[in-house]
Write a structure and sequence with these properties.
Layout lengths: L1 H32 L4 H10 L3 H12 L4 H11 L2 H10 L7 H9 L3 H10 L6 H27 L3 H6 L1 H16 L3 H19 L4 H36 L1
């Protein structure tokens, strides 16, 4: 029974693995242009396994930001994973804590969406492992493949590929901005704060980190206050 669930999970996760192919391939290629070795680039995909954070780390490495700031920034960007795994825990079948710790590490936005919405009732652990293992394997393998391809490109083309890093960030950001005013406000405020902090002499790493934190807190405060205001108006309307 568990083997069947695992096989079903592998089939379900194939779509995620295919979707990771171009992104992981590009990451491996850009890691080469950023000066990482094959081992370093592949190790980042093995131990970090967070697409947007890995791209962000590449830009920070290229800018010469201190390692502690890179780790801290990655942690902040990935805080949402605490919430995702906590929510997913309610849908998973009972399992030992060490088993939960293993599959929690492999949870990404895509695998969370598939597991949280793809099956009714409790999710078998074997099925979850099937989904996340094929996605994880795809990310790691295609990172290495992308690096090898990048290493064989002409030097001038490798240098030109550094521009693709910014294009990739735009590609990640723009779809989430469509129809989402909160994301637009967050991105705009973070950009403005980063520019101001950088202009007053703060280093690139610290300005990015503080701008990210400050903009997240400020935008969330605005939306929380707005929600309270709407609730108050609704309560008064009901009272009348």
């Amino acid at each position: 029974m568990e083997n069947n669930q695992f096989s079903t999970g592998l089939k379900a996760g194939t779509s995620i693995a295919i979707g990771y192919f171009p992104v992981a391939l590009t990451f491996g290629l850009l890691a080469k242009t950023a000066g990482l070795s094959l081992i370093e680039a592949t190790a980042m995909s093995i131990f970090v396994y967070a697409g947007a954070s890995q791209y962000m780390a590449l830009s920070l490495i290229t800018a010469g930001v201190a390692p502690l700031l890179i780790v801290t920034s990655t942690f902040i960007v990935n805080i949402r994973h605490f919430l995702m795994t906590a929510a997913l825990n309610e849908k998973m079948q009972p399992a030992k804590k060490w088993v939960k710790a293993i599959y929690a590490f492999w949870i990404t936005d895509e695998s969370f969406s598939m597991l949280a919405t793809g099956k009714k009732g409790k999710i078998p652990t074997a099925f979850a492992f099937g989904v996340i293992l094929i996605a994880y394997g795809s990310w790691v393998i295609f990172t290495a493949v992308g690096f090898v391809i990048g290493a064989n490109l002409p030097q001038f083309l490798q240098a030109a590929m550094s521009i693709a890093l910014y294009a990739m960030f735009i590609g990640l950001l723009v779809p989430s901005m469509k129809g989402n005013r909160k994301v637009v406000m967050l991105a705009g405020l973070a950009a403005i704060l980063h520019c101001l902090l950088y202009l007053i002499g703060m280093s690139t790493g610290w300005s990015i980190l503080l701008a990210t934190l400050a903009s997240s807190i400020l935008i969330e405060m605005v939306y929380v206050r707005r929600g309270k205001t709407v609730d108050t108006m609704y309560s008064r309307k009901e009272g009348t």
